[in-house]
Amino acid sequence: MTAINAVTDLSQDGEVAVLTLNSPPVNALSLTVREGLFEGFKQALASSAKAVVVICDGRTFIAGADVSNLADMLKDPSIEDIQKLMDGADRPVVAAIHGTALGGGLEIALCAHFRVAVPSARLGLPEVNLGLLPGAGGTQRLPRVLGPQKALEMITSGKPIRAAEALELGLVDELVAEDGLRAGALSFVRKALAGGRPLVRLRDRDDKVAPFRGKPELFETFRQATAKNFRGQVAPDWIVECVEAAVEKPFDEGLALEKQRFFQAAMSPQSAARRYYFFAERSAQKIPDVPAETAAREVKSVGVIGAGTMGGGIAMNFANIGVPVTIIEMKPEALEHGLSVIRGNYERSRGARPEETEKRMSLLKGSLDMADLKDCDLVIEAVFENLEVKKQVFQKLDQACKPGAILASNTSYLNLNEIAAATGRPQDVIGLHFFSPAQVMPLLEIVRGDKTSPEALATAVDLAKRIRKTIVISRVGPGFIANRVAMPRLTEINSFLLEGLPPARVDKVLYEFGFPMGPFAMLDLVGLDVIADPPGHQTIRGRMAEAGRRGQKGGGGFYDYDESRNPRPSPAADKIIEDFRIASGAAIKEVTDEEILERSLYLEVNEGAKVLEEGIAMRASDIDVALINGYGWPVDRGGPMYYADQIGLDKVVAKLKEFELKYGPQYKPAPRLERLAAEGKKLTGKS
Ligand code: 3H9
User: Fold this and answer.
1) Which residue in 186, 205, 172 sits closest to 50, CA to CA?
2) 242 ligand 1 Cβ < 6 A
3) Bridge partner residues of 53 (DSSP)
4) How far apart are the CA of 77 and the centre of ligand 1, in A?
5) How far is the CA of 514 from the centre of ligand 1 (A)?
6) Is the shortest distance between the CB of 134 and ligand 1 below 6 Å?
7) Which among 232, 244, 353, 371 is placed 20 to 30 Å from 387, CA to CA?
8) pLDDT for 531
9) Which of 532, 553, 584 delimits the end of a domain?
């Protein structure tokens, strides 16, 4: 075996050269990796070997470009330099794939003549998730294997496909035994040599694209069908343009266009924000004082207290991964109703097969007796938000549950430390704050009480990954992270109305910024009666609810709705707003769209700075992860903390001071924000 460099080896197995890459964690295409591959291919092709296999050690095949250092991609050798060697090879080159062949990794594999994979492997071009498009020939070679329609779907969705599907589609030539990739690849290449199998250079293939030449309808239809999904994103349109070029133009012209678009995308603020988010999501899972090797407890069965909307949704998360759940209610009718709502949710979910619904429902057991929780490894309480009630529930849980069982509360607001103190095992008490609907929303705030043990935290993180939630760790404080940071913006809408701003105008400004909907449309969706007005302080939302306008679910809200829940302006709502404004003596103000946006967003930035100062969130980027996944903050903007850094904290603070004078003390800049601004620093760390 010859070491090519620190991460690449070249060995000879009979007449086959085996180029092995080992660059943990995911064999990303850093400069060292590219040097190893380039030099390795050069040597293998200069040797007497009759074929070359490229394979990776560790958990995965190459997972793509090194996203932590994209600028480094400009240094030679480039991926293209490696691909030219592969394309020019006069003997079979085989990519042996396990784990994930993603982005630049799949683009390297597409330059091999053949691909073999283990059944658990997945292949994809996920660049779009990072605001990018494939930049090493993916948009040109994939359509030449799959045809343009499937290639468009794969590249614009970014979703990897499984090895079995890849085999069916001809993207993979053979599946080999799960634990025998190297042997399988060698045997494949020997068969190819013995049979004189012709080498397939994808850049030369035309059969899958030729039938679509001169037919722009395919691309136009695709653009129209996906326009809404890709609202505001730059990369998807360029992907369609490049795939169209793969059909219409010679390979090298398509490649040149792809390269140009890739660099444009890489320079875009959107891609910078999405790459920031990629690492933010991963660092949010790390707890500095809980080492990664902390043993998580095994969770094989779960209990849920409360079969309401929240409890039912929580239970579904576990049934979906095959974990049995015991659901406790106080009354048989409530239990029956809760279980039937869950069944209905399963039946209505897309692509639901009756046998799947039955399988999941069979994992859910209802009970009226807490003693039935005695064998559960974890119990999540989801009763209504009342501290005394929750304390009583936890006292009972402490009696009913076995030692070592984790007792979790789904509280969205209350003091977890007080709840934990009601038990004799505060070290096992934790907050698991799901967002509604719990079976759909991606965010899970894991709330760490003062006495929560490292093992309980490690167990919660492990479990959250199993149910595929995006995690943020919060300390105890009212509203934790997401609700607390989002609240000032949602509270300020009352002032907007008092200043005479129509709900539709405010909603439009925030929608155009990238939120899925504006605050008024969101309140209508959630229900105007969900939150009570604070004592002695009536809001227009509260007044609407009193007047029977509860939102989409009944009576309309800030808008009226037709049967298909399409909103339209509501004279009745406008009258309530106007009467309220006149009664309160508030004067109409001139407010620009820019001010609506700044006031809305900077209130969140300011609250985020307070949450950081108080130590509720560990990092600014955790706040961004929480708001993106809990409140629909557009990922293309990176979240409120990142966004403020891009604007410049000095500018944000100056505006907050201006708004404080103009609109009131709610805009007073947080001390941490002022300090960072004065020091020329950023919330997200780097200055
Ligand atoms: C591209 O390829 C462009 C080309 O078309 C053209 C170029 C010219 N770079 O997610 P995990 C780190 S764009 C750097 O926790 P999992 C990650 O931060 C790229 N680092 O594990 C983490 O580090 P740490 C297209 C990366 O098993 C560790 O690896 N490719 C990269 O749940 C483990 O990650 C993609 O978009 C990277 N590319 O999932 C693939 N990937 O331990 C992005 C991961 O310090 N990656 N890291 O926190 C993924 O989707 C998942 O990481 C993967 C593993 C499925 C691979």
Assistant:
1) 186
2) no
3) 18, 94
4) 21
5) 26
6) yes
7) 371
8) 75
9) 584
- List the 100-102 sheet strands across, edge first: 100-102, 122-124, 161-162
CA–CA distance, 681 with 687 (Å, rounded to integer): 5
Report the SS3 class of residue 376.
coil
How far apart (Å, rounded) are the C-alpha atoms in residues 378 and 465? 15
Select from 26, 162, 293, 619 the residue to mutate for testing ligand 1; criterion: most ligand atoms less than 8 Å from CB. 26
Could you read off the pLDDT of 100-139 as tens digits, one per residue? 999 999 999 999 999 999 999 999 999 999 999 999 999 9
Does 77 sit behind a cis peptide bond, omega within 30 degrees of 0 on the bond before it? yes
pLDDT, residue 687, reads 47
Token pair for residue 438? 């719990």
Q: Clarify whether residues 363 and 419 are in a common domain.
A: yes
Annotated catalytic sites, by residue?
A: 107, 127
Report d(CA 312, CA 320) in Å as an integer: 12
Question: What amino acid is encoded at 87 in this protein?
Answer: D
Gap from CA of 117 to ligand 1 centroid (Å): 19
Instruction: Look at residues 584, 615, 630 and tell me which one is the last residue of a structural domain.
Output: 584
- Residues 342, 454 within the same domain: yes
Question: Terminal CA-to-CA distance of the chain, rounded, Å?
Answer: 46
| pLDDT tens profile 296-343 | 999 999 999 999 999 999 999 999 999 999 999 999 999 999 999 999
73 lines ligand 1 (CB under 6 A): yes
482, pLDDT greater than 80: yes
Q: Which of 67, 260, 274 has the most ligand 1 atoms within 8 A of CB, as the residue to mutate? A: 67
Which residues, including other chains, have CB under 8 Å from residue 124's CB and lie 6 or more apart?
A: 100, 101, 102, 103, 106, 154, 158, 159, 160, 161
How many other CB atoms are found less than 10 A from the CB of residue 563?
Answer: 5
Length of the chain: 687
Query: How remote is the CA of residue 98 from the centroid of ligand 1, in Å?
Result: 15
Cα 524 to ligand 1 centre (Å): 38
Residue nearest to atom 10 of ligand 1 (CA): 282
**Tally of domains within the chain:** 3
Q: Could you tell me the CA-to-CA distances from 61 to 57, 97, 399, 432 in Å, in that order? A: 8, 6, 49, 35
Query: What is the residue with the minimal CA distance to atom 18 of ligand 1?
Result: 279
